[in-house]
Amino acid sequence: MEKRDSAILYGVPKVAYGQDGCTPFPMCVHSCAKYLGLCVDYTRAMAESGAAFRLAWNTACWDGGNVDAALTFDDFTKVFRSGMRAMEREFKLMGRTPQTNKEDFMDFICREIDAGNPVIALGIIGPPEACVITGYQDGGNVLMGWNVFQEYPEYQAGVRFEKNGYFITGDWWENPCTTALIATGTESLSPLTPAEALQNAAEALEGRMCGTYAKGILAYDAWKDALLCDRDFPADAIFPLLVERMMCHGDAMDCLSDGRGQAAEYLRRLARQYPAMAPGLNAAAGELEGITEIIWKEMIPVLGGWERGEAQTRQLARAENRRLFAGLIERMKVHDQRAYGYISEILEDNK
């Protein structure tokens, strides 16, 4: 078969931060599934991938990558493997290694697009977050698709746009954050069982250290300790440093608000489908909803809104607010501990 110079898949739903979600990989799973006619919504993609139950905090620094879904499990690839299982697809990944080159990535992308399947990629534009590749030009040297960072001014150098909104870029390989490709047109698999989905949830929630990252329930302590470290919020701090602090704090809030909300909805769905497990599932869901309630009713009002502007950044820097937040974080941790307990009991009872 002669290699094509260009191909484009029209109608792939947009992937962008907003009220419909703020975790790129499950957003991409939902977009690709909808295009391919599969019944996988954002709630299912979030929960079954495990991303809805994640929380990570790098104890070594204020790390803007804490919120990355890849940190959900200790195995970097597991969230992606689980996400494709939520899509009922076999997992096929090509990573950027010393053994792979641009031509390998181009061949992977072109084969998938030519077969009518979008590709999920990490990177392309901006950080190594997931995006969707929907087409190519110049034999794959130029790519098109949706990326949550495509309209951010700091990432727009070398980016153009199709009339329908798809990004167009030829600089994707030069971006060191372009690290992996995931196929969506692979062999169909059976859906996750409730036990498998709950096992993913428990694994993500479990408190533990992975390198310098505190994960799951243990991440609450690391987040709290960072806020209580007054030397990281000096009175004469330059504003960009405070912005970095606000970004990490805001990402943790977004991770929990989005994640635990979707997780609770998923558990309540399971409760309706499996009445025998309903008491424990609904109890766990209620605990997770308690976390989102603390964020929206107690933390965000102190900051003065959900935005991350100067007003919110200044409020976070105030010592009395950070001490208040430390108490709220401790309460959220207790909710997650209880949810973890309910989920663990269900798993034990259904062995």
Q: Would you tell me which CATH topology of the largest domain applies?
A: Cathepsin B, Chain A
User: Main beta sheet, described?
Assistant: 8 strands, antiparallel
- The backbone outline, from C-alpha atoms, is globular
- How far apart are the termini? 50 Å
Highest-level CATH class of the largest domain:
Alpha Beta
In terms of quaternary structure, what is this? single chain
CATH architecture annotation name of the largest domain? Alpha-Beta Complex
Secondary structure tally: strands? 11
What portion of residues is helical?
40-55%
Poorly predicted sequence stretches spanning 5 or more consecutive residues? none
Mean pLDDT: 95
Radius of gyration from the alpha-carbon trace, in angstroms: 21 Å
Q: What is the number of helices? A: 10
In what range is the share of β-strand residues? Answer: 5-15%
Count the domains: 2
N-to-C order of helices and strands: EHHEHEHEEEEEEHEEHHHHH
SS content category: alpha+beta
Walkthrough of the structure:
With 351 residues, the chain is an alpha+beta fold. It folds into two domains: 7-183, Cathepsin B, Chain A (Alpha-Beta Complex); 194-349, no CATH class. The protein is 47% helix and 12% strand. The protein is built from ten helices and eleven strands. It has helices spanning 24-35, 42-49, 78-86, 102-114, 194-205, 218-227, 239-273, 278-303, 310-317, 319-349; strands spanning 7-8, 56-58, 93-95, 119-122, 130-137, 142-146, 159-161, 167-169, 180-183, 208-210, 213-215. The strands form two sheets. Strands 1, 3, 4, 5, 6, 7, 8 and 9 form an eight-stranded antiparallel β-sheet that branches. Strands 2-11-10 form a three-stranded antiparallel β-sheet. The chain starts with 6 loop residues before the first strand and ends with a helix. The model has no long low-confidence stretch (mean pLDDT 95).
